[in-house]
Amino acid sequence: xxxxxxxxxxxxxxxxxxxxxxVDRTIxxxxxVSSVGRPANxxxxxxxxxxxxxxxxxxxxxxxxxxxxxxxxxxxxxxPAGAVELPELDTDAETQVLDSVTSNQVADSLLFFRDxxxxxxxxxxxxxxxxxxxxxxxxxxxxxxxxxxxxxxRPLGVGLR
Length: 161
Description:
mainly alpha, 60% helix
């Protein structure tokens, strides 16, 4: 009865809604446990799409929808776009970055991290402070949500009144 364009749009809307649900639950679970939880798995989206809407979805397509849901939510991708698994970490690259820093003053003012692809990243203290502030802002937002839903278990780090 409906055209193919309508069917594609409905399929896209359903998959994005399911991916958003999975991403939100994964992020909330990681905050409740107060650690970095496992990222939303494409296999979970495949199973959920089939269970709710009897839709056949490949893992590659599911990975793309999960990435889109993360980006739509304003989060960084936990893996390279479209990848099903996280890449291995390269410790040699981090050692090269550390060796390239010659001055003790520069070494004290820089912080070393790994980005979402596992590559070493250098942050200044100001950038790190801004990141911490944004994390505190996220905790405050979560505290407001906890106040709206008193039956929800409180995550660690969110104070009670």
